[in-house]
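Re: that chain you flagged

S.,

Sorry for the slow reply, it's been a week of failed gels. I finally had a moment to sit down with the sequence you sent. For the record, here it is as I used it:
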Amino acid sequence: MSNVLVLIEFSPRGEIAASARGLLAAAATLGSPVAVVVSATPLADDDVARLGELGAAGIYSAVTAAAGTVLLAPAVDALSGAVDAYEPAAVLAANSVDGREAAARLAVRVGGSVLADVVHVHNGNGTVVAQHSVFGGAYTVESVVEGGLPILTIRQGAIEGQAPTVQAELKTVSLGSNAEGVVLIDGFHDDPAGSARPELRSAATVVSGGRGLGSSANFVLVEQLADTLGAAVGASRAAVDAGYVAQTAQVGQTGVSVSPQLYIALGISGAIQHRAGMQTSKTIVAINKDEDAPIFDVADFGIVGDIFTVVPQLIEAVKARSN
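Prediction finished late last night. Pasting the structure tokens below so you have them in one place:
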């Protein structure tokens, strides 16, 4: 079975990123997943066990003092070393800022090609086939790399399920440091957590509100339903432009792209710019009093009604069922 490398990102606090589950699940459909990890100290036993739980058959642990002081270059060095060691059929990374840049740099170094913002992968007679959602989510297209190593960035949340748990085989290597042409990290500062809700991009459930809420005061209805379901809060661009909620909650072509298990749209008309950022959600529920709203074209379940009547009833029903 071919090896498939997966770049595992860590938070500055040393936690495995939520994107690891989907990346390893995608890799398992193509071959044998090998997690590539860069750290300043040898990988902790808990992290090795966790990566095995997520399906990493192998772990390529690159240890270098530059891991916390040099931006991205150590990750590219580690991926390049892992490519030499494992001769993979593909390399996967999260479609994050770091993941995209690491993928691009690796492609230049090893002569590969990048397939970006992939929402599904499969093995087509020995060829890695990537699927993309394009033109505002209206079409799904497939792409392959002809010649060279396929390097894919996977949209967070797009891959369902989890790879089978295995006993990961750990390979630890030491990386040298190259001080030329690199960007140094002077320090980092965590953004203060605004709430205890899940992070929007990787949340399993997202509740979004649109201009139909009518005011920032009414937007609390979105937050109440989100808290009842343990969901993240999103919004359409119209709601953001109207000042109902911060721009960081914007879902769509000029905001965040999400692919949760459940996406609930409240008072959102469903403009193509919004659908582009949520149409790959596994199940879409729309509540809108306009029966002709375009959001119903992509919804799995739709309720034509006043959100100020329907949503409070929905909240009470969910609470009653959970008690």
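What I noticed first: The two ends are 48 Å apart (CA to CA).

Talk soon,
D.
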